[in-house]
Amino acid sequence: MILDVGSLLPTSFRTSVDDPSHMTGPWQPATVDIQIYYSVQKLFKCSHSSMEHQFSSLVDPSRYDSKGLIADIPVRKNLFSEAEYVGSIRAQEDWNVLVGSIGEFKGGLDPKLSVVSVCIPECLPERLEIISYANEFAFIYDDATENIAHDKVRESMNETLELFLQGATTGHINPQGSGKNKIQAQIFNEMAALDRPRALITMKTWAEFLQLTSSRDRSIKFQTLDEYIPYRVWDVGQMLIFGLVTFGIGLTIPDNDMERCTEATRPAFAVIALTNDLFSWERERDAAKRDNMPHVVNAIWVIMGQHSVSEEEAKQICHSKIAKLVQDYKGIVEQYKKDESICLGLRKYIEALQTMSVPGGKIGSQEHQI
């Protein structure tokens, strides 16, 4: 389903196809609001060791159904969420024009709580549009490759990987070639115009994610959930999420803190991974049957085999595991917030994954798998 709000947007923001007259820059109407907002914020700004909620507001729990998964973690929404609609619709239209019809695609947009505005509520307002464009491209790409032959998927993924590596190493992506290439170049150019150093990091992490995904052995049959979770954590896009979140919020994490970052955030990504598996189980189960696969790469399948239980019982076990991991990560967040020996960027990123990716992932997973 495509949310039709095209009539609400300026014509220049509906597409950014290869005709230069259609290429979009920063969203000017929102830019004025952002400048005013920043001016007001400067009057009250002070230094904090934890996440500052400058660009988001709390969401009333009556507006969403968390399925009992997020405990007492508040859900927040970016105050400039209209930028997400612009970015997401641009990505849909660009794919339609440059690549092919997206058909009955279900993306990140939702009339109440769209994915990026909830997952990254403290995204800097001027970066929300391009983050949403990139996120929607990733969703569309995932859907487009879901039902094609494995060798074709790998070929397409290698092409995408090569271009992101080109951006990370040379600071430039050649827009010539396929329509998909043009969209990738659009993503990099817009990100680089806002924050070149972090744009390069995002391209690098996206490339690492694709490199890992393309080399995954999907024939592995996991015997226990403990064996499966580390595999799924990387497969869910740990490095890609790192790149998008740090770019969106404007965080810097030194290379020597990356090992600690990976270890500390492991429960958060386990929550995202298992939640996606829980809500996508029926679709993945049916797809495996259709393709005559001997097993399903999903936590529910693993739990059913490990404990010899039914689908419904496996779902309950998965639900309980997610709830435990949420509480585990809540403790990690509190621990790191108080540790001033750790760089501020890492502390904020760890907290961001709780207030953004964890609750957002649960709500968003009901519409689309990450």
Automatic annotation (TrEMBL):
This is Fusicoccadiene synthase. The lineage of its organism: Eukaryota, Fungi, Dikarya, Ascomycota, Pezizomycotina. Pfam families: Terpene_syn_C_2.
